[in-house]
């Protein structure tokens, strides 16, 4: 193997109802790559890291601060502990995702890098071992280990974080007919900032209600009750506090619902928001509305997406 290119798709964490517990891999229906690509190839020098892509200017200037470099270091350490030898290689990160977007930007880079490194070295680590490394690296950025972006980005589909019986996550059956309209306004919200704004405690009533929403949502997914699932996509944990970080979010949320959106919420920690449409016609109406009422500058974008059931994969 001389050259390998791995694409890791965007992800939408929480799905409103499952704070730090749910995540979905998402890809545009037009076939465009909303996610990062890492290319790995043999090299004459021990290690080289290059960067490319539209959002490369937002990356840290020092290579040591790049999460792909940190992924290489962690992978190398773990491989050496097993008696393995790291090959001489060159990594190129194609940064196609805005940083601080709420679409799992750091997860895309982490997942693409570790999958590329693992395949390049003839798969020394299992999926669970690799996922544990992904969570550790994600924790270095956000301040706490959580898998709701890296798990769906890596494995695809909608993933529920169980972290029990040897499983970090398990897939949830979902609704293939739904269209996800993702709108990134073009501003940045850091995950650390979005977590810091949350209260340190919640009332008993809030905890009971959120547990009911999540339990009902998971049941609705397994029993394929789309209407119930959409109705249960409510957030008492983060959205009431984080909406202040997003431009005109309460008004835009209501506007989307008036246009027939089944559910509307914040993707991850924001500022990207999602609106779920029952069909393509409604999705296109939501795009038109969000272009006028949510985008803040020419950095912003809107994609009509569906759940990506493949996850990270090799591309040409």
From TrEMBL:
Q: Does the keyword Cytoplasm apply?
A: yes
Family statement: Belongs to the GHMP kinase family. Homoserine kinase subfamily.
Q: Which GO terms describe its cellular component?
A: cytoplasm
What InterPro entries does the record tag this protein with?
GHMP_kinase_C_dom (IPR013750), GHMP_kinase_C_sf (IPR036554), GHMP_kinase_N_dom (IPR006204), GHMP_knse_ATP-bd_CS (IPR006203), Homoserine_kinase (IPR000870), Ribosomal_Su5_D2-typ_SF (IPR020568), Ribsml_uS5_D2-typ_fold_subgr (IPR014721)
Q: What is this protein called?
A: Homoserine kinase
Q: Quote the subcellular location field of this record.
A: Cytoplasm
Pathway terms, separated by semicolons: Amino-acid biosynthesis; L-threonine biosynthesis; L-threonine from L-aspartate: step 4/5
